[in-house]
Amino acid sequence: MKRRKGHEIDYAGKKYVSLHELCDDLDLPYSPLAHKYYRTKDIEQSVERAKKVKDAQTYTVWGREYKSLTDIAKEYGTSAAVISKRLQDGKTAEEAIAEIIQKETLSFCGKEFHGLAQIANFYGKDYSLVWERLKYSMSMEEALFLPIRQMNKPQYEITYRGKTYQSKRAFARENNIGIVCIREMMENHGVDFETAADILLEIKEKAGIPAEQMITRFPMCMIRGKEYRTLVELAAELKISAAAISTYKNRNGCGRILETLCQMQKEERETYFLDGRAVSYKELMQMGYTSASYQTVPKKKIPLYPQFAGHDFVTGCVDVARIYEEVKSERLEQEKGMQMNM
DNA sequence: GGGAAACTAAGGAAGTTAAC
DNA sequence: GTTAACTTCCTTAGTTTCCC
């Protein structure tokens, strides 16, 4: 079959009858070279461009190879810029993604989530399993939705309230409690599996967390449905440091976090008031007041923590950390009593 | 034999508290 | 209110086991 006549090219002292022939000879991708040549008619530039595309850096994240940061970003619901920033900080693509999916806002199936734990919880999956699957080169979708293979390992079987489960994880999945929560309870408090599960399910119920909601980690408190996992998270929203809240709580003997916030909200300080605004001693001096005359300026009480104004720390608020402590110590006491009677 | 689930444990993040 | 030392416990790397 007669081939269409191509561009006759001279490159590096060799004659080629077409761009295709050149590409085959130099093992370069045709498309970028042809496009560049079409635009510039400069074969040197075109070859350089094709070499660049061929050598373009690829990124490997947990065994999956990506041509660009944009591709990685699409897979994990983040942006190329967020990944790029971390690469600039000396992290590998894998380290960057590991950090991003834990700490950043991600978009998945048209919804926004804060971290992988929130995505896993939303779809009722155990976070540790989703994380493991991602590391086994599964896509986010596969990690979340592929069915879990049935196991037949009698040595892993456990019994809870007379019902037998394949494994601790299988129980955890069915009851929407992260397996790490159960393991932590067993290890740190020396209780058996059944007691650990009992305690966690009771906490979930008392905190008003729906049974179908997967819990990998209990939030410290909930304010009108919004969960606050850590004090730092809550403090950031209230525009105050976590240490400041902690210090106040400690100094004033406040029981729990919501109690502390309510008490802080009531705190007031006295300040000088001029023309409807609070004025400091320093400002009064700058305004020409003397150490004698400033005392004539009227004083008024204002909130010590103005950033708390308008917040309601009572209605629809659940102190999950308090419930956690109460249920845990009550059950541990019961366990201790039972052991003493044996 | 490879891949996936289960298990274990060390490191580090977060919380607490004393000192400033 | 901040800092830093200390404690608690959560995250995840590493290992084992066994299904496909």
Description:
The chain is α+β, with helices and mostly antiparallel strands. The protein folds into 4 domains: about 10-55, no CATH class; about 60-145, no CATH class; about 155-220, no CATH class; about 225-315, no CATH class. It is built from 17 helices and 14 strands. It has helices spanning about 20-25, 30-40, 45-55, 70-75, 80-90, 95-105, 115-120, 125-135, 140-145, 170-175, 180-190, 195-205, 230-235, 240-250, 255-265, 280-285, 320-340, and strands at about 10, 15, 60, 65, 105-110, 110-115, 160, 165, 220-225, 225-230, 270-275, 275-280, 300-305, 315-320. A 3-stranded antiparallel sheet has the order 10-9-14. It has a 3-stranded antiparallel sheet with strand order 12-11-13. Strand 3 and strand 4 form a beta hairpin. The protein is flat, with a radius of gyration of 32 Å. The chain binds a DNA duplex (20 and 20 nucleotides) through helix 8, helix 11 and helix 14.
Q: Count the beta strands.
A: 14
Distance between the termini: 95 Å
Counted by DSSP, the helix tally is 17
Write down the domain tally. 4
What is the general shape?
flat
Please compute the radius of gyration using only Cα atoms.
32 Å
**How does the major sheet shape up?**
3 strands, antiparallel
- The side-by-side strand order for the widest beta sheet comes to 10-9-14
What would the average pLDDT be, to the nearest integer?
72
Amount of helix: 40-55%
Helix/strand/pairing category: alpha+beta
Oligomer: single chain
Residue fraction in strands: 5-15%
Any low-confidence stretches, pLDDT <50, length ≥5? none
